[in-house]
Amino acid sequence: MSAGAGHHVLAVIGGSGLYEMGWLEDVEEVSVSTPFGLPSDMILRGQVKGGDATVLFLPRHGRGHRFSPSNINYRANLCALKMLGATHVLSVSAVGSMREEIEPGDLVVVDQFLDFTKRRASTFFDDGVVAHVPFADPVCPILAGAVYEAARATSARVHRGGTYVCIEGPQFSTRAESLMYRALGAHVIGMTNMPEAKLAREAELPYATLALTTDFDCWRVTEEAVSVEAVISVLNRNIVRARDVARALAHHLPDVSQSPARHALRSAIMTSPDATSPDAQARLEWLIGPRQKAD
User: Fold this and answer.
1) Which residue numbers are catalytic?
2) Which of 11, 143, 170, 214 is most exposed, with the fewest beta carbons within 10 Å of its own?
């Protein structure tokens, strides 16, 4: 079930609740080994019923929620999806609201990120090959537009655009931190989209986020402090909507040939082929292919 030329392959990264994809057929579980280790779990692969796209689903935290945000193998996750032929990546992520107008239960299709993570491997190019990809606009606007239209078809309120601040976790923010993030312009707060979005860009994968708002973050002093119970209650309701969005998107995947992600590596690799070690070449073969050394 590999992707052929011009074939759309939608990769969905999200919580294990998204596993209930009755709109897929010929479903199988695929185990992938990558140069960066194993991804979070086996990857579900299937064909869209009544459509011509393939869907890959990867539970970000592993089934049973085994990995904390800091311990997710983001590099293996994105590498595995690329190796399986992904052409579009939808990140489904639980977030807290940093704005009055974004209420619990709302969906947000973000377009910017603030990265406050501290101890995560955030690049494929950290040993033997150096690359600097452009990242000013981290979300693919073409894919994000399609996600927004798919979300509008649900019964949820959806907001287009906004800044996602990603924190290390696993603790929620202090009130002082929450107020600082608001002052910096954040609209939602979460723990998982970085370095996920950075690695998607390095892998030349068009990436968009569907943020599921579960609560107001603790900046809102009229609210009780964030509790896991409240978050899970709203999240369970939003998971149903997220599945509806993924299904609608899979039936109407856009042409992303003009996405800023598609040729992100074109001028980004700084290391000459002559200076690339055999180990680095082997580790990145899936991404950069063979590089010709000078005679």
Assistant:
1) 215, 217
2) 170
